[in-house]
Amino acid sequence: MLKLDRVYAGYGAIEVLKDLTLEVKAGEIVALLGANGAGKSTTLLTIAGVVPVRGGAITWREAPLPEGRPDAVLRAGLCLCPEGRHIFPRLTVLENLLSGSLRLPAGRNGPKLEEVFAYFPLLAERRAQLGGTLSGGEQQMLAIGRALMGEPQLLMLDEPSLGLAPQIVAKIFEIIRAINAKGVPILLVEQNAQQALRIAHRGYVIVTGQNSLTGTGAELLASDEVRQAYLGE
Predict the structure, then answer these.
(1) What is the pTM of this model?
(2) For residue 213, how many C-alpha atoms fall within 13 Å in the half-sphere facing its CB?
(3) Helix (H, G, I), strand (E, B) or coil at 126
(4) Residue 103 sits in which domain range?
(5) 127 shares a domain with 31
(6) In a shared domain, residues 94 and 5
């Protein structure tokens, strides 16, 4: 479905991605691992059209993905839930969720809301509450719910467990698996490498914007290099 073929990208004079190649196939969860500064978030932002491609190609369903056009990427069905949540603190939970459904035809909001509320019952209870008054875990649920409101054909998640309590982390990963079980492919950037690889079909490890390792989730979990660098073993 999604392919990055020898992609280069960066900011100003700084080149972050260097000859990066990866793929997300239909129905997969693909984990993207690496140290801070390796280029994980830049990869997602480049796919989303926020960071321009300087070399190589990104294709979606065998067609070129629009470069530098986040609106066109979103209309193509690729939805990004960014690191740091970036909800609208002065809008209610319901308003935040509806802001994620702007690409949908009229009349589709209702069913999507019911789907999001089924994943996150707490959001249904707090639909009239301002987003900025939610806890960190609740805001992360809201951010994922907002992305789901766009009916993603590919969901990109950037550090969904960052800064959350262990019980909330477990809930988030449970929901990620449930979303994928409904056929939504997921590209997951996650600091919790062990949790990510446990649910991932495949994974990539990148170092300074380049491919370092790739394999199934189980293979990477068993890799001595991954265990020492990312699992603290």
Answers:
(1) 0.91
(2) 21
(3) coil
(4) 84-150
(5) no
(6) no
